[in-house]
Design brief:
Elements (H helix, E strand, L loop, with lengths): L2 E10 L9 E17 L4 E7 L13 H13 L4 E7 L10 H16 L6 H16 L7 H6 L2 E7 L2 E7 L5 E7 L5 H6 L7 H20 L2 H5 L8 H4 L6 H10 L4 E4 L6 E5 L2 H17 L4 E6 L7 E4 L2 E2 L1
Parallel strand pairs: 3-4
Antiparallel strand pairs: 1-2, 1-11, 2-4, 2-5, 5-6, 7-9, 7-10, 8-9, 11-12
This protein binds L-homoserine.
């Protein structure tokens, strides 16, 4: 019986002001889904490994299970499939945990049966899984987990995504406070109305960040990673956020904001030396406020979801 293991990376979505529109794949963290053909007609989930909390193995209530079933429908295949999901990140962390599982689930089934679905179709399948848990319909985590690099969601109806490219000098300092924030809760508190001046700043910054990834231009990113609309509201859910941001900027970061719906935050630099200092300053600031956290210095991932062969993603 055939089997395949597929990886999908963690993602930052939104990239600063690009709420629900800009997303970025991250190197070094992600979920793995193994899909195995078996006798029968159903899709089952055999196990969810290394999860930080109970995740349902009911395929109709599991983001990877729902996405994998959608992929099977798109492929027109009725063979039985067993999935094993290995989580590589906590859920409710702002790193696109549900999207990584959904993408790996959909793509694992796709790869098991000849890799005949286009990326657009894998996106469609994964979105069904993501939608089931996130309380909103957005592609800024799912899309970069499929395409790699940064992506722009141009339209949701119909679903249209444009891969933007990557910034090779970009170093990302991720700090993950041990606080759980569900995306659906952090969406409920967002403002319904915004001032025209805040809108114009966020629009200009989002456009500039889009151009920065298209042009591989770190300077254009660093001058525009500012969000006047979402961050001020959401940051109130993250204890220690103002102190960690001040510490990051004092330590030389060119910007710091929330990853997705939080609580993970990320700072940016293009200096390896500065990144170590920034990481330490941010962790210390959170700790001083009594918030435990994990941290990682990483980069964006040029690669999206792919097959894992002996630990290598192809
Ligand atoms: N764009 C979504 C949000 C992503 O910010 O709510 C959630 O990970």
């Amino acid at each position: 019986m055939k089997s395949v293991k597929v990886f999908a990376p963690a993602t930052i979505g939104n990239i600063g002001p690009g709420f629900d529109v800009l997303g970025l794949a991250i190197k070094g963290i992600g979920d793995i889904v193994e899909a195995r053909e078996f006798h029968g007609n159903d899709l089952i989930i055999e196990a969810v490994l290394e999860a930080d909390h109970d995740i349902s193995t009911n395929p109709d209530k599991n983001t990877a299970g729902i996405a994998a079933q959608e992929a099977l429908k798109l492929l027109g295949i009725k063979t039985g499939v067993a999935l094993t999901i290995t989580k590589g990140m906590p859920s409710g962390s702002g790193l696109g945990s549900s999207a990584a599982s959904a993408v790996a689930g959909a793509n694992a089934v796709n790869c098991l049966f000849g890799n005949s679905l286009s990326k657009e179709k894998v996106l469609e399948a994964a979105m069904a899984g993501e939608y089931s848990v996130s309380g909103g319909y957005f592609a800024d985590n799912v899309a970069p987990a499929i395409y790699g690099g940064a992506t722009l969601t141009r339209s949701l109806h119909p679903l249209e995504v444009t891969p933007l490219g990557n910034i090779s000098d970009l170093i990302i300092i991720l700090v993950m406070p041990k606080v759980k924030i569900l995306t659906k809760d952090s969406r409920k508190i967002l403002p319904e109305n915004v001032t025209l001046s805040d809108f114009v700043v966020n629009l200009a910054n989002t456009a500039s960040i889009t151009a920065a990834f298209c042009k591989n231009d770190y300077n254009l990113l660093k001058d525009n990673l500012f969000d006047y609309i979402i961050e001020p509201t959401r940051s109130t859910l993250i204890p220690g956020f103002p102190e960690a941001k001040e510490a990051a900027l004092d330590a030389g970061a060119h910007g710091m904001t929330i990853s997705g719906s939080g609580p993970t935050v990320f700072a940016i630099t293009n200096s390896q030396k500065a990144s170590v200092k920034i990481e330490s300053a941010m962790v210390t600031a959170f700790n001083k406020k009594g918030v435990e956290c994990k941290s990682l210095i990483t980069t964006s991932s040029v690669d999206g979801s792919g097959i894992v062969k002996s630990g290598i993603i192809t």
